[in-house]
Amino acid sequence: xxxxxxxxxxxxxxxxxxxxxxxxxxxxxxxxxxxxxxxxxxxxxxxxxxxxxxxxxxxxxxxxxxxxxxxxxxxxxxxxxxxxxxxxxxxxxxxxxxxxxxxxxxxxxxxxxx
Length: 114
Description:
The protein is mainly alpha-helical and about 110 residues long. The chain is about 70% helix and about 0% strand. It starts with a helix and ends with a helix.
């Protein structure tokens, strides 16, 4: 969201739309990468890269819109997707990957079923 202010776009309620999209995609990237096995890591990273590039090409086209609101949304999505993609590989390495994987494994969520 700070990229909107850096490029001198006005911050409004429409800029919250990319925030929800970026948080959802960043969570998806991280969960998919974190729960991949070590031998499948390269294939999963290729899938995440392809997902990021297709989403980036589809949604960041708003940067070329004539309306300033849509340009701000496209800018926020483009910068946010790139940041979430970079952080997908960095955050699990900084944290203890096995500890996070055990905390949020599917068996953890089965304890909440009735």
